[in-house]
Automatic annotation (TrEMBL):
Sorted UniProt keywords: DNA-binding, Transcription, Transcription regulation
Example of a GO MF term: DNA binding
Residues in HTH lysR-type domain copies: 1-58
Protein name: LysR family transcriptional regulator
Record-stated family: Belongs to the LysR transcriptional regulatory family.
Xref: CDD domains: PBP2_LTTR_aromatics_like
Length: 296
């Protein structure tokens, strides 16, 4: 039994006429009649009562028609959904992101993506940059949003945003008198910084900027990104962070631009051999969205 035989059967049952069904199917009547006869022979029972002028379904044909309609509708829906999945309109994407992005547009980004691709499920995981890269290679997430370049042949990546770096100072600190801070003025300041293993590329960038300014930071406290601001506000030290962190809603600290306007690059990364259409659409959407919005 072939699928086309079932479609022929449904057309005749709905038209109640072999000639009209043949025209609907864009074929001639004799081959259509032969196909139905072959189907009936294979099934072992008649589907149509041909004794009357108008073609009528036999009791067996009535039962089969209801089941076949459901079957064909289900098949058509499956093909439709599969076609949508093939172009990335349906699927699941597990996304890793750094904590600072919680205050830098990721909510608006995901809302806009969901509006455009409502059938794509997004699973979010807040992770350090290094944890994201490890999770990508292990297949635990599909895409990551990290600070700093990605140097791994198994991963593809693209820079999606360049975020200005700023100095976070405790409120009332003497250096807040400066509208823009030369980094060399921080040479004697205690620093609050995240552990290098959480984000080696961004950590090394901060170290390099300070060395270029003639000093090595004196790190007195280590903490995750969002906790850094609390420690700065509490007076433990100063910090160099992306400007987007200003949206964190914390009090007790002041940010100042850095002379020379250094920036931290935000990269999107994914497995180079991942061919998921949903992933492709997500990566393209993120890249185009950040390009349109520009730096924070």
């Amino acid at each position: 039994m072939e699928l086309r035989h079932l479609r022929y059967f449904v057309a005749i049952a709905e038209e109640r006429h072999f000639g009209r069904a043949a025209r609907r199917l864009r074929m001639t009547q004799p081959p259509l009649s032969r196909q139905i006869q072959e189907l009936e022979a294979e099934l072992g029972f008649s589907l149509f009562d041909r004794a009357r002028r108008r073609v009528e379904l036999t009791p067996a044909g009535v039962v089969l028609l209801a089941r076949v309609r459901n079957l064909l509708e289900g098949l058509d829906f499956a093909v439709h959904e599969a076609r949508r999945a093939s172009v990335g309109e349906i699927g699941r994407v597990a996304v890793g992101y750094i904590s600072s992005l919680a205050y830098s547009g990721i909510t608006d980004l995901l809302r806009a993506f969901h509006e455009r691709f409502p059938k794509v499920e997004i699973a979010l995981r807040e992770m350090s940059p290094q944890a994201q890269l490890d999770a990508l290679k292990e297949g635990l997430i599909d895409v990551g949003l990290v600070r700093g370049s990605v140097d791994d042949a198994s991963l593809a990546s693209a820079c999606v945003k360049r975020d200005p770096l700023v100095v976070a100072l405790p409120a009332g600190h003497a250096l807040t008198a400066h509208k823009r801070l030369p980094l060399e003025l921080l040479a004697r300041e205690p620093f609050v910084l995240f552990p290098r293993q959480r984000g080696p590329a961004f950590f090394d960038q901060i170290m390099s900027l300070c060395r270029d300014a003639g000093f090595t930071p004196r790190i007195v406290q280590e903490a995750p990104h969002l906790d850094i601001l609390s420690l700065v506000a509490a007076g433990f030290g100063v910090a160099i962070l992306p400007r987007s962190i200003r949206r964190a809603g914390r009090r007790g600290f002041v940010i100042r631009p850095i002379v020379g306007s250094p920036r931290a690059d935000l990269f999107i990364a994914w497995r180079a051999d991942d061919t998921s259409p949903a992933l492709r659409e997500f990566v393209g959407f993120v890249r185009s969205t950040f390009v349109e919005k520009g730096a924070d």
